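Researcher: Sequence recovery benchmark, item below. Answer with residues only.
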């Protein structure tokens, strides 16, 4: 088995850091200027975590590529961490947004586009009633509130090492002794998350049953396959059993398709015939224009209607002034009609297969104990030889230093991977040449890591 020499990794990382700084003088100057007006020099906290000494500042993006202010071109396999899975600035969305911009952006009144989008989501996911939010985080938060409202229960349940956006209740992990605690890095939690949340391992049906049995859990909030700690696939029968169990104990099932929409036009739910009570879909739904949707079954909608009080509905903690605005809905309508279509998925899936096979060949030839896996148009490698069956196994396989090196090595050679894990996403514009370029760069990166005589290209 091939192992990674840590001192070599450190010296290779130093060389990549120097190259990045030397080749990005304009981004460096902007970062220094940004430090005087933006907290930590970035508009959003996570942007600090890119593998270079500072993030490249973007000049423009189109389709599957973007250019930074230093004039460097990147093949974008990050795609705004799924927000731009449609490719950057897809023509149909841009056209609809340009037209809507001139006709009013936000009104606190509905437009016909909202009905069109609701009808389209019905067809894709099978749930009849829909609401809109600006982010998937909000759609998850509002779904949880609805679940609490109609069940009268306070707790929720999530899977260990899940991510569902910045939802307070979800930042909880299991310790080795089986007890739950706040997730490392959880900033300013309102309460200890074990007050609000139960957490079990994905694919662990006996633990799920034990957690649901007391009858105090309003909802399970789950990605159908985990995508935020590497990809963790459900084991055969897991979804069927989870659905039966949630019904048995009166717990609602919320399926978060925000990332697993990568499985196809109707997400994992359509592909695998899932049957959630509530479904959430955000990020790429508007081609990158902020927007998210959450849908309900007929029965869930009836239970909500029975509890809702008209006089209080503007202050009940669900909604948002800009949610369901005309611009977002115009973007969603165009994106669903013309961009995230079945034809687009039919083109994207072979690209993801090609990426996976390129990475697999390098792993096999080099003997590193890693694996690569795929879900529709999303693919990812992880630093362990076997597929993880739960969040802990996936999390234990992560390697912060190695991951940063591979990201920076790729970035210095014009390829952007999704940060914080080793993920590539395809867009309708991603081309074979882009994929083959990644395979070559990945091969070279693994070579310099594992064969000390090879100099970095
Ligand atoms: C599965 C899942 N749900 C929800 C979210 C939250 O999306 P947003 O940050 O757009 O609110 C994310 C973000 O990565 C996610 O991966």
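Model:
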């Amino acid at each position: 088995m091939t192992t990674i020499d840590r001192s070599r990794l450190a010296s290779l990382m130093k060389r990549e850091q120097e190259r990045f700084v030397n080749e990005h003088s304009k981004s460096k100057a902007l970062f220094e200027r940004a430090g005087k007006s933006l907290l930590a020099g970035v508009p959003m906290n996570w942007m600090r975590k890119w593998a270079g000494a500072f993030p490249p500042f973007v000049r423009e993006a189109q389709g599957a590529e973007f250019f930074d202010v230093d004039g460097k071109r990147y093949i974008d396999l990050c795609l705004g961490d799924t927000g731009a899975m449609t490719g950057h600035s897809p023509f149909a969305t841009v056209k609809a947004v340009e037209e809507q911009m001139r006709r009013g952006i936000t009104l606190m009144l509905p437009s016909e586009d909202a009905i069109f989008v609701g009808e389209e989501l019905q067809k894709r996911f099978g749930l009849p009633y829909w609401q809109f939010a600006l982010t998937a985080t909000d759609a998850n938060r509002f779904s949880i509130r609805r679940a609490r409202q109609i069940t009268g229960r306070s707790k929720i349940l999530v899977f260990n090492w899940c991510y569902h956006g910045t939802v307070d209740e979800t930042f909880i992990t299991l310790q080795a002794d089986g007890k739950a605690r706040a997730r490392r890095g959880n900033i300013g939690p309102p309460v200890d998350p074990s007050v609000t949340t139960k957490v079990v391992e994905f694919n662990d049906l006996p633990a799920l049953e034990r957690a649901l049995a007391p009858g105090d859990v309003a909802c399970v909030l789950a990605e159908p396959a985990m995508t935020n700690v590497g990809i963790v696939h459900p084991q055969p029968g897991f979804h069927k059993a989870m659905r039966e169990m949630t019904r048995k104990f009166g717990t609602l099932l919320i399926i978060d398709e925000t990332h697993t929409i990568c499985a196809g036009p109707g997400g994992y739910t359509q592909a695998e015939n899932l049957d959630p009570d509530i479904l959430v879909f955000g990020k790429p739904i508007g081609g990158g224009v902020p927007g998210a949707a959450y849908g309900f079954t007929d029965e869930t909608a009836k239970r909500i209607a029975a509890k809702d009080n008209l006089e209080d509905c503007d202050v009940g903690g669900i909604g948002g002034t800009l949610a369901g605005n005309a611009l977002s809905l115009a973007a969603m309508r165009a994106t669903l009609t013309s961009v995230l279509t079945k034809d687009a998925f039919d083109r994207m899936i072979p690209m993801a297969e090609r990426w996976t096979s390129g990475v697999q060949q390098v792993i096999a030839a080099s003997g590193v104990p890693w694996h690569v896996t795929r879900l529709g148009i999303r693919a990812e490698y992880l630093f362990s030889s076997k597929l993880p069956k739960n969040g802990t196994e996936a999390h234990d396989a992560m390697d912060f230093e190695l991951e940063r090196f591979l990201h920076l090595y790729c970035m210095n050679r014009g390829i952007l991977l999704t940060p914080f894990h080793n993920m590539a996403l395809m867009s309708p514009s991603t081309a074979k040449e882009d994929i083959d370029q990644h395979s070559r760069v990945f091969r070279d990166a693994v070579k310099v890591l594992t064969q000390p005589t090879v100099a970095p290209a």
